[in-house]
Amino acid sequence: MSANLSEPLGSAVEENGGGYQEQDINQPRRIPPTSTNNSAPSASGTLGLRLLRVVIVAICYFIIELVAKIVTVAQFVWFAWRKQPHPGMQRLGAMLSEYMHAMWRYCTFASNDAPWPFEPWPRGKVDQQR
């Protein structure tokens, strides 16, 4: 077993799409943004529109929060009775949690992607049970 002395110090080999590419390990990795629309509002008109959308989203949040609490209690009762979660309530819970996450990201300027009713309703991916 011999060491590869041809590889320069401070580099590493990383798999990239089926091939390999050399990368300098002394340089920080560039992580791509999760959203492509993260620029801050530039004009006061855009900020005013965002304020209006934030107010609408905040009103929707209070309604969605109540629905999520009802789904949580109903799912708990269902699980206690049937010893397995209800698939429809699982999916609804996943959709509500994705929606509330998108709401908070928009309201805190972490994303410029406005949630429903300005964009389509989230699909809600349910984790597989083990």
The total of beta strands comes to 2
Strand content is 5-15%
User: What is the gyration radius calculated from CA atoms?
Assistant: 23 Å
Task: Name the average pLDDT.
Answer: 75
**Overall 3D geometry?**
elongated
By secondary-structure content and strand pairing, the structural class works out as mainly alpha
Helix content: 40-55%
Order of helices and strands: EEHH
Straight-line N-to-C gap = 41 Å
Largest sheet: 2 strands, antiparallel
Which secondary structure elements does this structure contain, and how are they paired or packed?
Layout (H helix, E strand, L loop, with lengths): L10 E6 L2 E6 L19 H39 L4 H21 L23
Antiparallel strand pairs: 1-2
Structure in words:
α1 packs antiparallel against α2 (87-107). It contains 2 helices and 2 strands. With 130 residues, the protein is mostly helical. It has a domain at 54-130. The protein has a two-stranded antiparallel ribbon.
Give a quick set of tags describing it.
130 residues; mainly alpha; two-stranded antiparallel ribbon; 2 helices; 2 strands; elongated
Q: Quick recap of the structure?
A:
By secondary structure, this protein is mostly helical. 46% of the residues lie in helices and 9% in strands.
